[in-house]
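DUF917 domain-containing protein (Halothiobacillus diazotrophicus), 397 aa
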Amino acid sequence: MAGLEYGLNDFRQIAAGAAVLGSGGGGSYADAVRVLNELEQRGWSGSVVVQPYDGATNACVLALMGSPDAADTLTLADMERAIAHTVCTFEVATGMALGTVVPVEVGPVNSLIPLIAATLSTNSIAWVVDGDGAGRAVPELPQTTYSGCRALAATPCALADDARSPEAAQSAVLRAPTAAQVESLAGGIVATAAFGSFSGIALWPSNATNGYALSEGYLFGTLSQAHALGEYLLAGSVPRRTVDVANRIAELTERVATPVATNFYITEVSESTNASSLDAGIIRLDNTPDPINSAATVYLYNLNENLIMYSSEQTDPCVIAPDSICYYSESTGRGFSNATDDLATYFDFRTGRSTGLAVSVIKVAAVPAFTYAPGVLASFATLLRKIGFAGALPYSG
Protein backbone atom coordinates (compact mmCIF):
# COMPACT_ATOMS: atom_id res chain seq x y z
CA MET A 1 0.00 0.00 0.00
CA ALA A 2 1.53 3.34 -1.07
CA GLY A 3 2.29 5.75 1.75
CA LEU A 4 3.55 9.30 2.15
CA GLU A 5 6.78 9.98 4.03
CA TYR A 6 6.59 13.00 6.30
CA GLY A 7 9.63 14.64 7.85
CA LEU A 8 10.04 17.63 10.15
CA ASN A 9 9.03 20.24 7.58
CA ASP A 10 5.91 18.20 6.80
CA PHE A 11 5.09 18.08 10.53
CA ARG A 12 5.22 21.88 10.53
CA GLN A 13 2.89 22.05 7.56
CA ILE A 14 0.45 19.67 9.27
CA ALA A 15 0.42 21.82 12.42
CA ALA A 16 -0.20 24.99 10.38
CA GLY A 17 -3.03 23.43 8.37
CA ALA A 18 -4.59 21.82 11.43
CA ALA A 19 -4.50 25.17 13.27
CA VAL A 20 -7.07 26.39 10.73
CA LEU A 21 -9.08 23.20 10.27
CA GLY A 22 -9.22 22.44 14.01
CA SER A 23 -12.11 24.85 14.65
CA GLY A 24 -10.30 26.48 17.56
CA GLY A 25 -9.30 23.25 19.30
CA GLY A 26 -7.03 20.25 19.15
CA GLY A 27 -4.26 21.91 21.13
CA SER A 28 -2.29 25.13 20.95
CA TYR A 29 -0.54 26.05 17.69
CA ALA A 30 2.13 27.87 19.74
CA ASP A 31 2.78 24.62 21.63
CA ALA A 32 3.00 22.68 18.37
CA VAL A 33 5.54 25.12 16.93
CA ARG A 34 7.63 25.03 20.11
CA VAL A 35 7.64 21.22 20.23
CA LEU A 36 8.68 20.94 16.60
CA ASN A 37 11.46 23.47 17.13
CA GLU A 38 12.71 21.28 19.98
CA LEU A 39 12.58 18.24 17.70
CA GLU A 40 14.73 20.13 15.18
CA GLN A 41 17.19 21.26 17.86
CA ARG A 42 17.58 17.65 18.93
CA GLY A 43 18.75 16.85 15.40
CA TRP A 44 15.90 14.54 14.37
CA SER A 45 15.98 14.11 10.58
CA GLY A 46 13.90 10.99 10.05
CA SER A 47 10.51 10.46 8.46
CA VAL A 48 7.20 8.79 9.30
CA VAL A 49 5.07 6.88 6.81
CA VAL A 50 1.44 8.07 6.62
CA GLN A 51 -1.05 5.92 4.73
CA PRO A 52 -4.62 4.56 4.76
CA TYR A 53 -5.44 1.94 7.36
CA ASP A 54 -4.61 -1.50 5.96
CA GLY A 55 -7.18 -3.51 7.95
CA ALA A 56 -4.47 -5.87 9.16
CA THR A 57 -2.35 -3.95 11.72
CA ASN A 58 -2.97 -3.57 15.44
CA ALA A 59 -4.06 0.02 15.95
CA CYS A 60 -5.69 2.50 18.29
CA VAL A 61 -6.59 6.17 18.59
CA LEU A 62 -3.86 8.17 20.35
CA ALA A 63 -4.14 11.74 21.65
CA LEU A 64 -3.59 14.21 24.45
CA MET A 65 -6.70 14.92 26.51
CA GLY A 66 -7.62 17.87 28.69
CA SER A 67 -7.29 21.62 28.88
CA PRO A 68 -4.95 23.30 26.35
CA ASP A 69 -4.29 26.01 28.92
CA ALA A 70 -3.25 23.41 31.49
CA ALA A 71 -0.69 22.23 28.92
CA ASP A 72 0.31 25.83 28.19
CA THR A 73 4.03 25.15 28.63
CA LEU A 74 3.97 21.79 26.85
CA THR A 75 7.45 20.62 25.83
CA LEU A 76 8.61 17.84 23.54
CA ALA A 77 9.76 15.86 26.57
CA ASP A 78 6.32 16.25 28.22
CA MET A 79 4.65 15.01 25.05
CA GLU A 80 7.00 12.08 24.57
CA ARG A 81 6.70 10.91 28.17
CA ALA A 82 2.89 11.10 28.12
CA ILE A 83 2.86 9.15 24.84
CA ALA A 84 5.31 6.51 26.06
CA HIS A 85 3.50 5.91 29.36
CA THR A 86 0.09 5.81 27.65
CA VAL A 87 1.17 3.40 24.91
CA CYS A 88 2.81 1.09 27.47
CA THR A 89 -0.30 1.09 29.67
CA PHE A 90 -2.55 0.44 26.66
CA GLU A 91 -0.43 -2.43 25.33
CA VAL A 92 -0.38 -4.14 28.73
CA ALA A 93 -4.16 -3.70 29.07
CA THR A 94 -4.94 -5.06 25.60
CA GLY A 95 -2.15 -7.62 25.31
CA MET A 96 -1.26 -6.34 21.85
CA ALA A 97 1.70 -4.47 20.39
CA LEU A 98 0.67 -1.44 18.36
CA GLY A 99 1.82 -1.22 14.76
CA THR A 100 0.05 2.02 13.90
CA VAL A 101 -2.00 4.81 15.51
CA VAL A 102 -4.51 7.37 14.25
CA PRO A 103 -5.35 10.93 15.44
CA VAL A 104 -8.57 11.41 17.38
CA GLU A 105 -9.26 14.75 15.65
CA VAL A 106 -7.70 17.49 13.54
CA GLY A 107 -5.74 20.03 15.59
CA PRO A 108 -2.27 21.57 15.95
CA VAL A 109 -1.21 19.18 18.72
CA ASN A 110 -3.48 16.17 18.32
CA SER A 111 -2.67 15.81 14.62
CA LEU A 112 0.99 15.59 15.66
CA ILE A 113 0.67 13.14 18.57
CA PRO A 114 0.62 9.95 16.46
CA LEU A 115 3.51 11.28 14.34
CA ILE A 116 5.62 12.00 17.43
CA ALA A 117 4.72 8.53 18.75
CA ALA A 118 6.09 6.98 15.56
CA THR A 119 9.43 8.79 16.05
CA LEU A 120 10.01 7.13 19.42
CA SER A 121 12.17 4.04 19.80
CA THR A 122 10.26 2.94 22.91
CA ASN A 123 7.40 1.36 20.95
CA SER A 124 6.69 -0.69 17.81
CA ILE A 125 4.56 1.94 16.05
CA ALA A 126 5.82 1.86 12.46
CA TRP A 127 3.45 4.22 10.65
CA VAL A 128 0.47 6.56 11.09
CA VAL A 129 -3.04 6.33 9.64
CA ASP A 130 -4.00 9.18 7.31
CA GLY A 131 -7.27 10.19 8.91
CA ASP A 132 -9.09 11.05 12.12
CA GLY A 133 -12.54 10.78 13.66
CA ALA A 134 -14.12 14.17 12.96
CA GLY A 135 -12.46 16.28 10.28
CA ARG A 136 -12.17 18.99 12.95
CA ALA A 137 -11.40 19.12 16.66
CA VAL A 138 -14.19 18.14 19.06
CA PRO A 139 -14.81 18.68 22.78
CA GLU A 140 -15.60 15.07 23.67
CA LEU A 141 -15.06 11.51 22.50
CA PRO A 142 -18.71 10.82 21.49
CA GLN A 143 -18.44 13.50 18.79
CA THR A 144 -16.37 11.19 16.57
CA THR A 145 -16.97 8.57 13.92
CA TYR A 146 -15.10 6.11 16.14
CA SER A 147 -17.89 6.37 18.70
CA GLY A 148 -20.46 5.71 15.98
CA CYS A 149 -18.79 2.49 14.79
CA ARG A 150 -20.55 -0.37 16.58
CA ALA A 151 -17.76 -2.89 15.94
CA LEU A 152 -15.14 -0.59 17.48
CA ALA A 153 -15.34 -0.72 21.29
CA ALA A 154 -13.91 2.33 23.07
CA THR A 155 -12.18 0.28 25.75
CA PRO A 156 -9.83 -0.74 27.17
CA CYS A 157 -8.85 2.92 27.40
CA ALA A 158 -5.48 3.94 28.86
CA LEU A 159 -4.63 7.27 30.48
CA ALA A 160 -1.16 8.27 31.65
CA ASP A 161 0.62 11.42 32.76
CA ASP A 162 3.99 12.80 31.73
CA ALA A 163 5.99 11.64 34.76
CA ARG A 164 9.77 11.73 34.33
CA SER A 165 10.14 7.96 34.63
CA PRO A 166 7.95 4.90 34.03
CA GLU A 167 8.19 4.06 37.74
CA ALA A 168 6.75 7.45 38.70
CA ALA A 169 4.01 7.46 36.06
CA GLN A 170 0.38 7.66 37.12
CA SER A 171 -1.95 5.76 34.84
CA ALA A 172 -5.45 4.35 34.65
CA VAL A 173 -7.19 1.70 32.57
CA LEU A 174 -10.88 2.35 31.98
CA ARG A 175 -13.54 -0.10 30.85
CA ALA A 176 -17.04 1.09 30.00
CA PRO A 177 -19.72 0.24 27.42
CA THR A 178 -19.79 3.60 25.62
CA ALA A 179 -17.51 6.44 24.61
CA ALA A 180 -19.72 8.83 26.59
CA GLN A 181 -19.07 6.86 29.77
CA VAL A 182 -15.35 6.76 28.99
CA GLU A 183 -15.39 10.53 28.48
CA SER A 184 -17.05 11.05 31.86
CA LEU A 185 -14.61 8.77 33.68
CA ALA A 186 -11.53 10.06 31.87
CA GLY A 187 -12.53 13.71 32.26
CA GLY A 188 -12.87 13.27 36.00
CA ILE A 189 -9.46 11.63 36.30
CA VAL A 190 -7.59 14.04 34.04
CA ALA A 191 -9.07 17.04 35.88
CA THR A 192 -7.38 16.02 39.13
CA ALA A 193 -4.33 17.90 40.38
CA ALA A 194 -2.32 14.68 40.14
CA PHE A 195 -2.69 14.58 36.37
CA GLY A 196 -2.36 18.34 35.95
CA SER A 197 -5.52 18.61 33.80
CA PHE A 198 -4.01 16.84 30.77
CA SER A 199 -2.78 13.36 29.93
CA GLY A 200 -2.15 10.93 27.13
CA ILE A 201 -5.11 8.79 26.08
CA ALA A 202 -5.23 5.62 23.96
CA LEU A 203 -8.51 3.85 23.15
CA TRP A 204 -10.62 2.21 20.44
CA PRO A 205 -8.34 -0.81 19.88
CA SER A 206 -8.47 -2.31 16.39
CA ASN A 207 -7.16 -5.86 16.03
CA ALA A 208 -8.01 -9.35 14.85
CA THR A 209 -10.56 -9.78 17.65
CA ASN A 210 -12.89 -7.13 16.20
CA GLY A 211 -11.91 -7.69 12.57
CA TYR A 212 -9.69 -4.60 12.55
CA ALA A 213 -12.80 -2.48 12.90
CA LEU A 214 -10.99 0.84 12.52
CA SER A 215 -11.34 0.27 8.77
CA GLU A 216 -15.01 1.27 9.03
CA GLY A 217 -14.66 3.86 11.76
CA TYR A 218 -12.42 6.69 10.54
CA LEU A 219 -12.44 9.55 8.03
CA PHE A 220 -9.73 8.98 5.45
CA GLY A 221 -7.37 11.68 4.20
CA THR A 222 -7.73 14.39 6.84
CA LEU A 223 -4.07 14.32 7.91
CA SER A 224 -2.82 14.78 4.35
CA GLN A 225 -5.43 17.52 3.85
CA ALA A 226 -4.04 19.42 6.84
CA HIS A 227 -0.56 18.91 5.38
CA ALA A 228 -1.58 20.31 1.98
CA LEU A 229 -3.31 23.33 3.54
CA GLY A 230 -0.30 24.04 5.75
CA GLU A 231 2.01 23.75 2.76
CA TYR A 232 -0.14 26.36 0.98
CA LEU A 233 -0.08 28.73 3.97
CA LEU A 234 3.64 28.44 4.69
CA ALA A 235 4.64 28.80 1.03
CA GLY A 236 3.15 32.27 0.69
CA SER A 237 5.59 35.20 0.66
CA VAL A 238 2.79 37.28 2.18
CA PRO A 239 -0.26 36.12 4.14
CA ARG A 240 -3.01 34.60 2.01
CA ARG A 241 -6.37 36.34 1.71
CA THR A 242 -9.17 34.80 3.75
CA VAL A 243 -11.24 34.06 0.64
CA ASP A 244 -8.29 32.29 -0.96
CA VAL A 245 -7.75 30.15 2.14
CA ALA A 246 -11.44 29.23 2.12
CA ASN A 247 -11.23 28.29 -1.55
CA ARG A 248 -8.15 26.16 -0.92
CA ILE A 249 -9.90 24.36 1.94
CA ALA A 250 -12.83 23.61 -0.37
CA GLU A 251 -10.49 22.25 -3.06
CA LEU A 252 -8.60 20.01 -0.65
CA THR A 253 -11.49 18.68 1.42
CA GLU A 254 -14.40 18.79 -1.05
CA ARG A 255 -16.36 20.57 1.67
CA VAL A 256 -18.05 23.96 1.26
CA ALA A 257 -15.91 26.63 2.91
CA THR A 258 -17.21 30.18 3.34
CA PRO A 259 -15.73 33.24 5.09
CA VAL A 260 -18.30 34.46 7.63
CA ALA A 261 -16.22 37.22 9.26
CA THR A 262 -13.25 38.76 7.45
CA ASN A 263 -10.66 40.96 9.17
CA PHE A 264 -12.41 41.41 12.50
CA TYR A 265 -10.60 41.92 15.82
CA ILE A 266 -10.78 40.02 19.11
CA THR A 267 -12.03 42.59 21.62
CA GLU A 268 -13.14 40.44 24.56
CA VAL A 269 -12.28 36.97 25.88
CA SER A 270 -14.03 35.14 28.71
CA GLU A 271 -12.63 31.70 29.59
CA SER A 272 -12.62 29.18 32.43
CA THR A 273 -11.75 25.48 32.81
CA ASN A 274 -14.67 23.26 33.84
CA ALA A 275 -14.74 20.07 35.92
CA SER A 276 -14.09 17.92 32.84
CA SER A 277 -10.91 19.84 31.93
CA LEU A 278 -12.61 21.65 29.06
CA ASP A 279 -11.88 25.35 28.57
CA ALA A 280 -15.27 27.06 28.24
CA GLY A 281 -15.25 30.49 26.67
CA ILE A 282 -16.89 33.31 24.76
CA ILE A 283 -14.86 35.25 22.21
CA ARG A 284 -16.11 38.62 20.97
CA LEU A 285 -14.96 39.93 17.59
CA ASP A 286 -15.66 43.41 16.19
CA ASN A 287 -14.94 44.93 12.80
CA THR A 288 -12.78 47.62 14.42
CA PRO A 289 -10.02 47.19 17.03
CA ASP A 290 -11.95 49.42 19.44
CA PRO A 291 -15.45 47.99 20.02
CA ILE A 292 -16.81 51.48 20.67
CA ASN A 293 -16.48 52.20 16.96
CA SER A 294 -17.73 48.81 15.81
CA ALA A 295 -20.49 48.45 13.23
CA ALA A 296 -20.58 44.63 13.39
CA THR A 297 -19.99 42.18 16.24
CA VAL A 298 -19.86 38.39 16.38
CA TYR A 299 -19.62 36.05 19.35
CA LEU A 300 -18.05 32.58 19.36
CA TYR A 301 -19.01 30.12 22.09
CA ASN A 302 -16.56 27.29 22.72
CA LEU A 303 -15.76 24.28 24.87
CA ASN A 304 -12.08 24.13 23.85
CA GLU A 305 -13.48 23.98 20.28
CA ASN A 306 -15.79 26.51 18.64
CA LEU A 307 -19.39 25.29 18.73
CA ILE A 308 -21.59 28.21 17.72
CA MET A 309 -21.24 31.71 16.24
CA TYR A 310 -23.74 34.54 16.57
CA SER A 311 -23.79 37.93 14.81
CA SER A 312 -25.22 41.21 16.01
CA GLU A 313 -26.86 41.51 12.60
CA GLN A 314 -29.17 38.47 12.88
CA THR A 315 -31.06 36.49 15.50
CA ASP A 316 -30.23 33.00 14.24
CA PRO A 317 -26.71 31.57 14.64
CA CYS A 318 -24.32 32.11 11.73
CA VAL A 319 -22.64 28.73 12.22
CA ILE A 320 -23.46 25.74 14.42
CA ALA A 321 -21.46 22.58 15.09
CA PRO A 322 -20.88 20.01 13.68
CA ASP A 323 -19.84 22.48 10.96
CA SER A 324 -16.35 23.81 11.61
CA ILE A 325 -15.81 27.39 12.80
CA CYS A 326 -12.20 28.00 11.76
CA TYR A 327 -9.81 30.80 12.67
CA TYR A 328 -7.44 32.42 10.18
CA SER A 329 -5.51 35.69 10.33
CA GLU A 330 -4.53 37.78 7.32
CA SER A 331 -2.17 39.66 9.66
CA THR A 332 -0.06 36.58 10.47
CA GLY A 333 -0.99 34.16 7.69
CA ARG A 334 -1.77 31.48 10.26
CA GLY A 335 -4.63 29.77 12.02
CA PHE A 336 -4.82 29.45 15.79
CA SER A 337 -6.73 27.89 18.66
CA ASN A 338 -8.66 29.08 21.70
CA ALA A 339 -5.69 28.32 23.95
CA THR A 340 -4.57 31.45 25.81
CA ASP A 341 -1.07 31.47 24.30
CA ASP A 342 -2.57 31.44 20.80
CA LEU A 343 -5.19 34.11 21.53
CA ALA A 344 -2.52 36.36 23.08
CA THR A 345 -1.20 37.18 19.61
CA TYR A 346 -4.55 38.79 18.80
CA PHE A 347 -5.84 39.88 22.21
CA ASP A 348 -3.87 41.56 24.99
CA PHE A 349 -5.05 39.89 28.19
CA ARG A 350 -3.28 42.53 30.31
CA THR A 351 -5.11 45.50 28.81
CA GLY A 352 -8.25 43.66 27.70
CA ARG A 353 -7.93 45.05 24.19
CA SER A 354 -7.21 43.83 20.67
CA THR A 355 -3.56 43.81 19.66
CA GLY A 356 -4.59 45.25 16.30
CA LEU A 357 -4.00 42.04 14.36
CA ALA A 358 -6.97 41.03 12.23
CA VAL A 359 -8.83 37.72 12.57
CA SER A 360 -11.17 35.98 10.14
CA VAL A 361 -13.63 33.13 10.65
CA ILE A 362 -14.31 30.51 7.99
CA LYS A 363 -17.28 28.16 8.07
CA VAL A 364 -16.42 24.70 6.74
CA ALA A 365 -19.24 22.23 6.19
CA ALA A 366 -18.96 19.02 8.19
CA VAL A 367 -17.74 15.84 6.49
CA PRO A 368 -20.95 13.96 5.50
CA ALA A 369 -19.77 10.67 7.01
CA PHE A 370 -19.21 12.54 10.27
CA THR A 371 -22.79 13.78 10.41
CA TYR A 372 -24.15 10.32 9.53
CA ALA A 373 -22.21 8.53 12.28
CA PRO A 374 -24.63 7.28 14.97
CA GLY A 375 -24.77 9.52 18.01
CA VAL A 376 -22.65 12.39 16.71
CA LEU A 377 -25.45 14.92 16.17
CA ALA A 378 -27.17 13.95 19.43
CA SER A 379 -23.92 14.45 21.30
CA PHE A 380 -23.39 17.89 19.79
CA ALA A 381 -26.99 18.79 20.66
CA THR A 382 -26.32 17.92 24.30
CA LEU A 383 -23.21 20.11 24.37
CA LEU A 384 -25.00 23.03 22.73
CA ARG A 385 -27.83 22.84 25.26
CA LYS A 386 -25.22 23.25 28.01
CA ILE A 387 -24.26 26.62 26.55
CA GLY A 388 -27.85 27.74 26.02
CA PHE A 389 -28.75 26.66 22.48
CA ALA A 390 -31.71 24.34 22.09
CA GLY A 391 -32.51 24.87 18.41
CA ALA A 392 -32.19 22.49 15.49
CA LEU A 393 -28.75 21.39 14.30
CA PRO A 394 -27.63 21.33 10.69
CA TYR A 395 -28.10 17.92 9.04
CA SER A 396 -30.71 16.85 11.63
CA GLY A 397 -33.71 17.25 9.35
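The chain has a mean pLDDT of 94. DSSP finds ten helices and 19 strands in the chain. ok done for today
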